[in-house]
């Protein structure tokens, strides 16, 4: 069995295979030809004794790290020989080489064989599309994170903790970091709320306050950890989203108090942009890094949000996010989330002042 990239010489056999495998939703000659010639697609075929017996086609979403398994087919007479599995492996490998971090697909809700194959490869269901196919059948949507950190690129094994309120991402992130450095440490909801009271700025854009990097660092030092803080500005933080002058004054006062307490505790504060190299070095040295991000690239909202860097390699940073999209989301989907380095650079700044701040935690 040979596996190779589709070429113009395969066009007629691909069309014949398409007709043999699918009664509806077949690719046209024009589409098939265009995909063969497309530079930003992965189009793999399987040949047996010169006869084309299978293919897999992956397309990419421009401007994102998302790929889509557009179609996969194996000659019915050749099924059961591992062809689909090898095509899936090649499709994922090609998608990774193109910079994709996630691979999505749609599958007929009644195609139990294909669904079983995808689940075997680690794909998870995340949606249902009604009346999706030409025959009005429903489609199951599935997704897989295809890029994961290798053991050597992971920081100290980071436990995952789900924040229990809408406003305690900072304490939850700090608890994950402390748990990575102290395996015996057990955290409770009470710990989460106590840390929030110690670290909160009191006011944010609206509602409950968010956590100040110096406040979180002070909370960590009080619990016998070392903290190194990076902040790229010296003025009070989080005031640009607050209109009320009285609230601004309170935030400024809290900021001043945190600076004084951090100095008294001899916490190292660097008033500069933390670099990706510094974050990567910290992870490799067994330290744990908390980073404030803007959630815009995650949920289209411009909210400040604390996460933990749980791994790093030459292409990505991996994050532990304490806040699932919904209460039913699988916790595994919130761990080792791959973020391309260039995307991380944009994500790890917040507000009109482009605040960039991080905390490096060690024993």
Automatic annotation (TrEMBL):
Pfam families (alphabetical): Acetyltransf_1 (PF00583), DUF3335 (PF11814)
EC number in record: 2.3.1.266
Matches recorded under PROSITE patterns: GNAT
All copies of domain N-acetyltransferase, residue ranges: 1-147
An annotated Gene Ontology molecular function: protein-N-terminal-alanine acetyltransferase activity
Keywords: Acyltransferase, Cytoplasm, Ribonucleoprotein, Ribosomal protein, Transferase
Record GO cellular component, one term: ribosome
Gene3D superfamilies: 3.40.630.30, Cysteine proteinases
InterPro entries: AcTrfase_RimI/Ard1 (IPR006464), Acyl_CoA_acyltransferase (IPR016181), DUF3335 (IPR021770), GNAT_dom (IPR000182), YpeA/RimI_acetyltransf (IPR050680)
Sequence similarity: Belongs to the acetyltransferase family. RimI subfamily.
Name of protein: Ribosomal protein S18-alanine N-acetyltransferase
Source species of the chain: Pseudobowmanella zhangzhouensis
């Amino acid at each position: 069995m040979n596996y190779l990239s589709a070429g113009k010489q395969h066009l007629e056999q691909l069309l014949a295979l398409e007709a043999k495998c699918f009664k509806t939703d077949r690719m046209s000659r024009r589409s098939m030809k265009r995909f063969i010639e497309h530079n930003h697609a992965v189009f793999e075929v399987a040949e047996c004794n010169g006869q084309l017996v299978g293919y897999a086609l992956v397309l990419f979403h421009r401007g994102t790290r998302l790929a889509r398994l557009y179609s996969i087919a194996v000659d019915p007479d050749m099924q059961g020989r591992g062809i689909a599995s090898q095509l899936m492996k090649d499709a994922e490998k090609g998608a990774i080489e193109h910079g994709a971090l996630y691979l999505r697909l749609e599958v007929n809700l009644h195609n139990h064989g294909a669904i079983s194959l995808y689940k075997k490869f680690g794909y998870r269901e995340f949606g249902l599309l009604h009346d999706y196919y030409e025959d009005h059948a429903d489609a199951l949507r599935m997704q897989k994170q295809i890029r994961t950190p290798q053991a050597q690129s992971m920081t100290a094994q980071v436990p995952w903790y789900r924040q229990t309120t809408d406003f305690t991402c900072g304490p939850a992130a700090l608890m994950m970091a402390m748990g990575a450095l102290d395996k015996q440490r057990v955290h409770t909801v009470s710990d989460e709320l106590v840390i929030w009271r110690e670290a909160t700025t009191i006011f944010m854009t609206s509602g409950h306050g968010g956590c100040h990097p110096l406040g979180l660092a002070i909370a960590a030092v009080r619990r016998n950890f070392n903290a190194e803080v990076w902040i790229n500005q010296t003025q009070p933080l989080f005031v640009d989203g607050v209109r009320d002058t009285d609230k601004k004054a309170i935030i400024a006062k809290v900021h001043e108090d945190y600076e004084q307490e951090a100095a008294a505790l001899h916490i190292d504060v660097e008033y500069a942009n933390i670099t990706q190299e510094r974050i990567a070095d910290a992870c490799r040295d067994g330290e744990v890094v908390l980073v404030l991000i803007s959630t815009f690239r995650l949920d289209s909202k411009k909210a400040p949000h604390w996460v933990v860097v749980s791994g790093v390699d030459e292409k990505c940073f991996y994050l532990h996010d304490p806040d699932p999209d919904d209460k039913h989301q699988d916790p595994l989907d919130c761990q080792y989330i791959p973020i391309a380095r260039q995307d991380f650079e944009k994500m790890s700044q917040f507000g009109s002042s482009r605040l960039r701040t991080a905390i490096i935690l060690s024993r």
